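1st attempt posting a full record on here, be nice pls
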Amino acid sequence: MVQTLHRKATGFNAAKTLLLCAMTFFETLVALLAVAILLLQVTRRMRLPYPGILAAAGVGVAMLPGAPTIPIDPPTALALFIAPVLIDSAYDFPLGAARRMLLPLFLYAVVAILVTTGVVVTINAFTIGLPLAVAVTLGAIVAPPDAAAATAVLSNLPVARRVDALLKGESLFNDATALLLFGAALTVQARGGLDTETALRIGFAAPGGILLGIAFGFLVSRLRPVTENTVGGTLLQFVYAFATWLIAEHLHLSAVLATVASAMTIATLATVEDSPRMRVHSFAVWTTVVFLLNVVAFLLMGLQARRIVAAMSAADLERAVSFAAIVVVAIIATRLAMAFLFHALVAHRHRRGHVLAPFNRGETLLVGWAGMRGLVTLATAFALPADFPDRDLVVLTAFSVVLATLVIQGATLAPMIHFLKLGRQGEVQEELEAARKALAEAALSRLEPETGAEADALRIVYKDHHARASREPDRTPSDRRRNLAMAVVIAQRQRLEELRDADQIGPTQYLELQEDLDWKQLSVGTDEERRITES
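the predicted structure (as tokens):
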């Protein structure tokens, strides 16, 4: 009886402790989110990349007294943090751009990853002497740049379209290379060497993952119409993102290639008749989720770094910091060297008659300097098994690389664009105006055979749209109609509020009419009013 009561009391105390830890983590996460929202407003006004600010905030919150120590399940880390980011990036990346930029994408997404890993392995051999498989694992973790930080700056300071496409495409495909290398190194380390079975498993992982992703993408494309315009449709996107990853993992295939292939397959099978309502809703949800994952990842890495630093002796910490500093410098230098090597290669091929023109030296320097590390590096560090040799050193080095590159390179990216005069806001505006004219011409061409008052009214609207790009704002009839339509919607909103206050309409009907007015207001609003941004 006494033993039974003791076991119950022990179980109760354990549950209470677990609950308190969960509450502490929740409170810490809420605090970081609040700080992140505040800092995002600062980054937007100063044109700084928000991932660098999040990295600093994660460290700051993790160092607060009473911040919890949160264990991370390694198998869950990659699926949780990487799968949604890959789906989001792969779905939006145009396959046409990948075909046109096959050579630069191959060099930056494959060759540069292998070279960077080799540099880290070489540094290790001459400094701390980690086992080869451990050094390769570290190299794979810190090799892939993350386009999120660069994109945060380039959205406000647009550069040449091919530079933007290269940074985004590289970030997508280099994840595949790095994670394949990471998985292979982990497998070799776990098995104690490279035998025939391990080699066959590693060799089949990439093609098998691609085939699985394509098949799964076809399946999901058939299911999407059933759930369109429902909350279940958005949930299906997350289910298939995680399911693709988990199924590939269980089959010992490349989860990252399966995920990328499935998203690209679904995007390829999409049609112009797909629901716009679903697209708008999905964009808002995925933007929020990817941002939240960044916040959580930086918080968790800050917490891990605090635990690692606290557990290390002074000598070990000095050794780790010195090694991390060397790796940071080497990675930045390697990226710049690869950028200028590629510039020389393309310039040589261009002189011999090849179509692909080289970037100018300013663009080359920008591409080289934009190699900041981010969420993928953090997530792969999380995914290291708890018993991995020298895990603390590897994790601390990875976090140092992320923090240093985001803060140093991220803070100087915008000034570099200004100094080198690489911004092309004027050209981007001209492209938008030309595209809007082309869309208006398509509408007028479709209306040409139509007769009647309705067709005439639409012709007036689209003729205004066609002319608006070359006129000053608020001078065309369509601008006047927009202002009047906005005033009408505001009057309707005021009347709807009066009906609700007078209890003349129920809450469900109120929300339905409010949503109708929201869409009316968005339909006549400006481009800025319709857009959701990360900061």
